[in-house]
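Key idea: predict the complex, not the pieces.
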Amino acid sequence: MFKLFGLFRRKSDDLKHNQVMDLASDYVDEELEEPVLAKVRRHLGFCPPCQSFMDSFGKTVRLLRSMPQEKAPESVRRRIIEQSQRH
Ligand SMILES: [Zn+2]
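Result:
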């Protein structure tokens, strides 16, 4: 939750790509609250790269959760971010 405080202090209303990616796990877990949730959704609305990032991130998290050992490790998130930045 602490990482959100930085966002509230921001002057600009729009999230940066890396902020959306930072919030990805909370978004997928549906732990985001307004107004951050609305900002993430708005960013996804106009940003196909983040959209596909969120899509594959969500799928990966769900896949991991469906497996016996329940891990959504940081390394997976990093790998998806690296992949999405290669485009
Ligand atoms: Zn973006």
